[in-house]
Amino acid sequence: MVTVLSLSGCKTVQLEQDQGIIGQLYWLEGNHMPQVIEDDNPAGRSSERNIQRTLLIYELTRLNQLEQTNGLFSEPPTPLVARVTSDKSGQFKVGLPPGNYSVFTLEKEGLFANIFDGEMNVNPVAITSEEWVIINIKIDYKAFY
Asked: What is d(CA 50, CA 58) in angstroms, rounded to the nearest whole number?
C-alpha cells in the first residue's frame, strides 16, 4: 500500500493504474485540549487509532445542501458515485473517473465530514486522469479540542 499523507492539501501520486482515492481513516474521541504532559503520559487523552468504516463518495456537495445534527450530516441530494469499506487498519482505495467529489464516512447516526474548502464544498477531492489522490480522514465528531 502507498504511504498515506495528511489531507491538509491533498497529495497526488502517479501510479501505473487508473485514478481515484487512496487513504487512511483514523478515529479520535474525548479530550484533545492542550495540556501539561508529565512522564510522556497525558492523563485522560485518547490517541487517534485506525478504524474500519464505509466511505460514501458523492458528486461535489456544498454545505448548504445538507442538514446537520450533532456533527453529522443527512444524505446529500447529489448522486452517490462510489461506496467502499476500508480494511480493519483503516486503509482504503477506490477508483473514480476524473471529476470533483465529496467524501463522507458512514456513521450510525449519519454521515461524517469535517473539511470544507473556501466555497464551502464538503470534503472536496479533485480526481484527474491517471492520478491517485492520497488523503487521511480523521473522524473526530466525538472529540473536543
From this structure: 23
For cell 480493519, name the residue.
88
Name the pairing type of β-strands 80-85 and 54-59: antiparallel
Q: Which triple of cell numbers denotes residue 144?
A: 473536543
The C-alpha cell of 85 is what?
Answer: 469499506
pLDDT single digits (tens) 58-88 = 999 999 999 999 889 999 999 999 999 999 9
Taking the alpha carbons at both ends of the chain, their separation in whole angstroms is 31
Q: Are 12 and 134 in contact (CB under 8 A)?
A: yes
Round to whole Å and give the CA distance between 34 and 40.
Answer: 14
User: Parallel, antiparallel, or unpaired: how do β-strands 20-31 and 132-144 relate?
Assistant: parallel
Fold topology of 11-144: Immunoglobulin-like (2.60.40)
